[in-house]
């Protein structure tokens, strides 16, 4: 059985996703679509010319009709964030771009699972959900999966431990109002603030973890990378490919992706990230893990911030 993916947008993010998929054998067919056809042709050709060194894949540039039969469609199109810009600054421009794409792509790939990556991802996931007419389970935003990856990487560095032993999440908006529910954070089932007390290695000294410093690092990481190299694309590409891999394996996997809220934690009619199970059908359900009162308040503040943006734009 083939694994067909269409990527809309052949910029840094879209092309890096395509390259990562090819190298790791995640898809068997990748279609790259971009308003700049020359760019998508060049990116597809560049990746295709390395095909003798990675698993077989058909990768080519095309138009919306070529998306027919896609299992997954990934939206990376839109105006990229510039130094000093917040993700929400992009809202109306990228909403308009997304709206122009929705009717074109859904008529050719109505059964695909749609992964929204463009920013502001929570706003665009909401718009896609409201306008597309597709079942909600087929639509998810990459959300705070990237933030969660950044969090785990930072904690792994801090404690000098394999990141796969770190279990912690970022909830809420993929942006300035995101937060870490520290009550859930642990390393190998040891609550993260107690981890240092359990170390028996001689001379092991772990300074006290300052939660606010870590959260500040997570929120500002994207902006720092953009300031230094102009764009972020490697970590987000790996994160999106992880979602695709979980969809194709069909084994439900919990992850922080953005999707429509229907009363979970008392939040309605907004897309943001909490723990969801993702599998062959897309979002198979949410996992409403218990939060402290303070964490719940933070999640609701994030929802309110996103609703304020939704109220300020034309959908």
Automatic annotation (TrEMBL):
Allosterically activated by fructose 1,6-bisphosphate (FBP). GO terms for cellular component: cytoplasm. Gene3D superfamilies: Lactate dehydrogenase/glycoside hydrolase, family 4, C-terminal (3.90.110.10), NAD(P)-binding Rossmann-like Domain (3.40.50.720). Beta-D-fructose 1,6-bisphosphate binds at residues 152, 167. The active site is at 174 (proton acceptor). Residues 144-312 form the Lactate/malate dehydrogenase C-terminal domain. The gene is ldh. Catalyzes the conversion of lactate to pyruvate. Coiled coil: none annotated. InterPro entries: L-lactate/malate_DH (IPR001557), L-lactate_DH (IPR011304), Lactate/malate_DH_C (IPR022383), Lactate/malate_DH_N (IPR001236), Lactate_DH/Glyco_Ohase_4_C (IPR015955), NAD(P)-bd_dom_sf (IPR036291). Homotetramer. Keywords: Allosteric enzyme, Cytoplasm, NAD, Oxidoreductase. PANTHER family: L-2-HYDROXYCARBOXYLATE DEHYDROGENASE (NAD(P)(+)), L-LACTATE DEHYDROGENASE. It catalyses: (S)-lactate + NAD(+) = pyruvate + NADH + H(+). One of its GO terms (biological process) is glycolytic process. This is L-lactate dehydrogenase. Pathway: Fermentation; pyruvate fermentation to lactate; (S)-lactate from pyruvate: step 1/1. HAMAP family: Lactate_dehydrog. Residues 4-141 form the Lactate/malate dehydrogenase N-terminal domain. GO terms for molecular function: L-lactate dehydrogenase (NAD+) activity. Its main location: cytoplasm.
């Amino acid at each position: 059985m083939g694994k067909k993916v269409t990527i809309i947008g052949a910029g840094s993010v879209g092309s890096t996703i395509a390259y990562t998929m090819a190298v790791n054998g995640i898809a068997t067919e990748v279609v790259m679509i971009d308003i700049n056809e020359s760019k998508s042709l060049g990116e597809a050709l560049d990746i295709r010319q390395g095909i003798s060194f990675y698993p077989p894949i058909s990768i080519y540039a095309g138009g919306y009709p070529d998306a027919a039969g896609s299992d997954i469609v990934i939206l990376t199109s839109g105006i990229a964030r510039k130094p000093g810009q917040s993700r929400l600054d992009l809202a109306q421009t990228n909403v308009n771009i997304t709206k122009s794409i929705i009717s074109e792509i859904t008529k050719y790939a109505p059964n695909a699972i749609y992964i929204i990556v463009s920013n502001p991802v929570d706003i665009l996931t909401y718009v896609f959900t409201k306008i597309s007419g597709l079942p909600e389970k087929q639509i998810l935003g990459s959300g705070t999966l990237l933030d969660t990856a950044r969090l785990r990487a930072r904690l792994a560095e801090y404690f000098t431990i394999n990141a796969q032993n770190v279990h912690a999440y970022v909830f809420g908006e993929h942006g300035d109002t995101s937060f870490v529910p520290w009550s859930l954070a642990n390393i190998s089932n040891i609550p993260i603030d107690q981890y240092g007390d359990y170390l028996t290695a001689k001379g092991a000294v772990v300074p006290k973890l300052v939660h606010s410093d870590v959260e500040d690092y997570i929120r500002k990481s994207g902006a720092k990378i953009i300031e230094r190299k102009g764009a972020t694309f490697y970590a987000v590409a790996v994160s999106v490919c992880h979602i695709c891999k979980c969809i194709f394996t069909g084994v439900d996997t919990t992850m922080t992706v953005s999707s429509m809220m229907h009363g979970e934690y008392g939040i309605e009619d907004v897309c943001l990230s909490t723990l969801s199970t993702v599998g062959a059908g897309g979002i198979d359900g949410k996992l409403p893990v218990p939060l402290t009162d303070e964490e719940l308040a933070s999640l609701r503040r994030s929802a309110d911030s996103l609703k304020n943006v939704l109220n300020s734009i034309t959908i």
